[in-house]
Amino acid sequence: MNRQRSFFGFLVAGAIALLVVVIAGFYWFFAKSPASLIASTSQPGAAIFVSKLAPVMTSLLVNPDRLQALEREGELSKLKTSFLSKSGIDYQQDIKPWLGSEITLAITTLDIDRDPANGQQPGYLMALATEKPEKSREFVELLFSKRALAGANLAVEQYKGIKLIYDNSQSEQDSLAGAVVGEDFVLFANDPKVLRDAINNVQAPELNLNSFPEYQKASKQLPKGSLAVAFLNLPIVAKWQGLELPEQTYNSQIISLALNPKGLLAETAFLTSSEIIPASPALSKPVGALQYIPATAGLAISGSNLSNLGNSDLAKLWKQLTATIYGSEEGAISRLAKPLVDIQKRWGINLPDDIFSWVQGEYAIALLPEKEQTNPHWIFVAEKSDSVEQGVSRLDAIASSNGLSISPITLNKQKISAWTELVTATKQPNAKERPSLSIEAKVQGVHTSLGNYEIFTSDLETMDEILTAKDNSLIDNPNFKDSIAAIPQPNQGYIYLDWTKSQNLLERQLPALKLLEVFGRPFFENLRSLTASSYSIDTGLLKGGVFFQLHDS
């Protein structure tokens, strides 16, 4: 294969890899100086080159050399060597002297020639900020001279005062076009038409992304000092993927990555012109139901009012995302939430109708994984109300209809109700004696009242842990406190995942996760937990974030 042919592909892969390095290397950076790695701007300057109809734009807003502080095993240096070795370009000598603090990559169009008869050829644009225009011009000349020596047939064109260089003897897949525009950016594309369109977008501002109302509104949500940003035009992304979504609520999405003294905060905002309803009232502090969730929990979900969940902004987002990724909501649930599917099948219940509908106050749900067990222990806590009392009676009735007995017992001086199933047990003393049969009560679930809450658990052992470990609850756990401290308030509650405790369970439910762990090994090896929340406050906007907490040492 010609060494120069796929240089644009290597540039694209390199930009994506740099974003991965930002995430994967944060752990080692925190021991140094977070203040030294804050982007000077949170908005990509290269948006002026990108069409407002572009499906995706992603930007790294810090010079790659400043990411050297993140390295422990030379990950970034290896990336530079790997991607540039095939191009004959030396990063230190040819790129570092002029490269500025922005690398932007965009898919500018779904089809460059807009002719469906010959298939779709997306347009790719990369914009590199330059601090020394003359040096960057020398680089572009050097790059294309090397391509000419490798057999490319070069063409030079003046377009609206800008010098374009491109090769027209390569295959479409491997072609490259480049230009230095003004004093600020070096542009590369997979076709000269993409460069011409980029220049047109600058000279006719109404064509570029900065003039797009959705982008203008979304960019206002970006926090200061974001290291990386991505903007997605969701209807065009769906079209790009060949999807016909049954319900299109959200029109665009913006994502940002920013440093925090204890981890990484990824924030996202979804914009819509439709009327959306928050899933629950805004909460200014964690719900009291968390006091009954042990610190040993691997997953905890908490908030207020599950009864409105099905009609909320989160529900509409869930439907749109699952349709995009899995084709349907049902397909996503069967793959991502198999434990919930199993519970519904085993008990013959519908969670939204039989449980969520009567939870109008605080709630907390938790899973407590064990390495030896395939199915984790579970806890469900609901704030008392008239509807909760009716809900408990309904669950008792469902248990009874499934052949279970409702047995009152005492555990640690606390009266509880157990759903039990009578099963036969065989005891074989030795080979000469006849086996003896006995009847045992197998517990399928228990519930009790504590304070102002009704508590359900999967078994007696889990209920016992709640009753005996009141001073070791999740809400008092330092790691949990640090995680939720990074999430803005007020919000709609938290999803907290302890990575160490839940890793095995997640890998069983999501087999593809293991491949992701290999790709992002430095990050996953040092991930302690992640915490997600939504905190929408504006009409037509669903905003949320995920905080990735990393080990201190």
Description:
This protein is of the alpha+beta class. The chain has helices at residues 7-24, 26-30, 75-84, 91-95, 133-149, 192-203, 213-219, 234-240, 313-326, 329-336, 338-347, 351-354, 386-401, 460-468, 478-485, 499-509, 513-519, 521-525, and strands at residues 56-60, 99-109, 123-130, 154-159, 162-167, 177-181, 185-189, 228-233, 252-260, 263-271, 299-304, 362-368, 377-383, 405-411, 414-427, 436-450, 453-457, 494-498, 527-534, 541-550. It has a 20-stranded antiparallel sheet, with helices on both faces. The chain is elongated and about 95 Å long.
Shape estimate: elongated
- Average predicted confidence as pLDDT: 81
What oligomeric state do the depicted chains represent? single chain
Count of discrete alpha- or pi-helical segments spanning 4 or more residues: 18
Overall helicity: 25-40%
- Beta-strand level of the residues, as a percent range? 25-35%
Integer-rounded radius of gyration: 28 Å
Ends distance: 44 Å
Largest pleated sheet: 20 strands, antiparallel
Structural class: alpha+beta
Low-confidence stretches: 1-36
Give me the count of strands.
20
